[in-house]
Amino acid sequence: GEKVEQHESTLSVREGDSAVINCTYTDTASSYFPWYKQEAGKSLHFVIDIRSNVDRKQSQRLIVLLDKKAKRFSLHITATQPEDSAIYFCAATNYGNEKITFGAGTKLTIKP
Amino acid sequence: NSKVIQTPRYLVKGQGQKAKMRCIPEKGHPVVFWYQQNKNNEFKFLINFQNQEVLQQIDMTEKRFSAECPSNSPCSLEIQSSEAGDSALYLCASSPRLGATGQLYFGEGSKLTVL
């Protein structure tokens, strides 16, 4: 089955700098890649996703890049703010599959 | 605030005891997922439903867990005989449509501790 690896378990950046979280996946059939954020004491919530028909997607300060050849995708948070501090989870699945495989999370800390 | 309601938030059980968790999905969402998240934040998919029907489940769920999503009642996940390795956060998520290629809405989870 699909395996999703998140390369950074922790990441610390200075406020205003960019943060990049990298993930790789194993199943070439995977075609949908969402990202979720979990703030301390709260449930996961969806932040952004990308589908395999594009290689870049932006939503305000969030950019997702997808390299299907390398089976790699990444989340870029630009102009980081203190409220970006959280655990970020990447995930992957394919159309027709009913379950999503998650990475183990990256704890992002934004330093003042 | 999450609109997926999970109860209880915490439960403590002895080995061999039953442990039951409930989930009310977001209104109008026919698809429900259960995941187990361990202390290392790793997710394990357990089972998912569309309305009352099981779509997929793993071996462990089939053998040691019972789960259902009856109409007009909360979904539930029950461990028949708890083991120490079952200590984890159990997350319920719902989705407005079939197919995992869409946003999931998560509850806050039920944290199970098996002594």
**Rough shape of chain A?**
globular
> What is the terminal-to-terminal distance of chain A?
41 Å
Weakly predicted, low-confidence segments of chain A: none
The largest sheet of chain B, given as strand count, sense and whether it forms a barrel, is:
7 strands, mixed
Overall outline of chain B: globular
Care to describe what's here?
The complex is a heterodimer of chains A (112) and B (115). With 112 residues, chain A is mainly beta. In chain A, 0% of the residues lie in helices and 54% in strands. In chain A, a hairpin with an 8-residue loop joins strand 9 and strand 10. Chain B has one helix and eleven strands. In chain B, the strands form two sheets. In chain B, strands 2, 4, 5, 6, 9, 10 and 11 form a seven-stranded mixed beta sheet that branches. Chain B has a four-stranded antiparallel beta sheet with strand order 1-3-8-7. The N and C termini of chain B lie far apart (31 Å). Classes of the chains: A mainly beta (112), B mainly beta (115). At the A-B interface, strand 4, strand 5 and strand 10 of A face strand 4, strand 5 and strand 10 of B.
